[in-house]
Design brief:
The structure is a single chain. The protein is of the alpha/beta class. The chain has two domains: 1-46; 59-400, TIM Barrel, CATH 3.20.20.140. Helix content is 45%, strand content 11%. It has 14 helices and nine strands. Strand 7, helix 10 and strand 8 form a beta-alpha-beta unit. The protein is globular, with a radius of gyration of 23 Å.
Length: 404
């Protein structure tokens, strides 16, 4: 009798194990499908191109001039997404083949580590985070799920891997020596591009000043104190309190100056901007913004702060998206550039697309020739256009990056 009972128990256990195995296999299959299919669909929804390529111009003049330019863009976020940047994609805004096609010599690849729910330009709290789920669905290492610093380091590793696998198509710029050697190489080989690594929001330091040196060693050369919310470093223009630098924030700015890192005041509150400018005597930038003179909102720079940034010797990157310009095409970008140049001087204006920044853009990076055409229509000279489209920022990098 006990033998029959034992067989029944074994059969029950066997059936139970089969059910468990089936459920596990089902879950693994489901998670695999999520990792493969969900991230591209998410990005397609976030990083839309209003007018997809190809891009036609009304004259050959802009195209010829564009081919002679040394173009630099101060802000793009493609490292946040699960896309091979060495392959040309039909969605998103930036990858290496499209940068080369658009004649972009230098792209700042900016790392995003936290985005709260309900993010907006007027009042955003820090109590939630959408990147956690994105990291999980994209198959990022578990170490990144709950650590902002690890998310920054992971994206830096991704970028470095793209550089190593690019066969010389993509160069990692960390020093003035890197920049000089790259620009010399590009004189005879225009079919290459380069990247500088930036960090959008110093909350990735996790309140520990020693993490700044860790991020520097990972290749970061540009950091903004804040993103859309107030953090341990200081107040955001879109935060709740919108205060200035904290004591820790002052420590961060001082150490950034010691390391010859670039301070990016995009998203910073007016008080934070004022506090930073009291500490540093180096040029600062605003990597991606609009200006209130052409479109008045809490995201954009006032005339006062346009002048303050220019007075440091810095540059202001004009964005392309609607909140920045008030419009949806290159003409609106050129109007904001004209306004900024009239106040600050042409030598203090640059491009700051916010490509792949979860905003619809009027074109992808292959469409930058439309800005060249619009700048011609705004009456800028060829030399002025050369400097706006990249020369100003590359000059700044030559002055402020560490030597080696």
């Amino acid at each position: 009798m006990w033998i029959k009972t034992s067989f029944k128990v074994l059969n029950s256990r066997s059936l139970f194990m089969k059910v468990i195995l089936f459920v596990l296999l089902f879950l693994i299959l489901g998670l695999t499908l999520v990792v493969i299919f969900v991230p591209p669909q998410v990005e397609k929804g976030l990083n839309q191109i209003i007018n997809p390529p190809p891009y036609n111009l009304s004259s050959e003049t802009a195209s010829k001039l564009h081919s002679t330019l040394l173009i630099a863009d101060l802000h793009a976020d493609p490292l946040l997404f699960d896309r091979d940047l060495l392959k040309k994609s039909d969605y998103g805004h930036v990858d290496v083949p499209r940068l080369i096609e658009g004649n972009v010599a230098l792209q700042v690849f900016t790392v995003v580590t936290k985005v709260p729910k309900g993010t907006n330009i007027d009042s955003t709290d820090a109590d939630s985070d959408q990147i956690t789920l994105l990291a999980m669905t994209q198959g990022w290492p578990p170490s990144t799920w709950f650590s902002l610093k690890e998310r920054a380091l992971y994206q830096a590793d991704k970028f470095n891997n793209f550089v190593e696998e690019s066969n010389g198509k993509l160069t990692f710029i960390k020093t003035t020596d890197d920049l000089e050697q790259y620009l010399e190489r590009r004189k005879t080989n225009p079919d290459i591009t380069a990247g500088l690594l930036g960090l959008e929001g110093a909350h990735a330091l996790e309140g520990d000043i020693s993490n700044l040196d860790i991020l520097y060693d990972a290749g970061f050369r540009l950091i903004s104190p804040t993103h859309f919310f107030d953090n341990e470093v200081g107040g955001s223009a879109h935060g709740i309190e919108k205060e200035g630098l904290t004591d820790f924030g002052r420590e961060v700015i001082i150490r950034m100056d010691e390391l010859n890192m670039i301070i990016d005041l995009a998203h910073a509150s007016p008080k934070t901007i004022d506090d930073v400018l009291e500490i540093t005597d180096r040029p600062v930038i605003v990597s991606h913004t609009g200006v209130r003179g052409t479109y008045d909102n809490n995201r954009n720079l006032s005339d006062e702060y346009i002048r303050k940034i220019a007075d440091t010797g810095g540059v202001i990157g004009i964005g392309y998206w609607e909140t920045a310009t008030g419009g949806k095409d290159a003409k609106d970008v050129a109007k904001a550039i004209r306004y900024t140049a009239d106040i600050a001087g042409v030598e203090h204006v640059a491009l700051g697309s916010d490509f792949d920044g979860a905003v619809p853009e009027p074109f992808d990076t292959t469409g930058l020739v439309q800005i060249t055409e619009a700048l011609i229509a705004e009456g800028f000279s060829e030399d002025e256009i050369y400097n706006i489209m990249g020369g100003n920022f590359i000059r700044l990098l030559s002055d402020v990056l560490p030597k080696n």
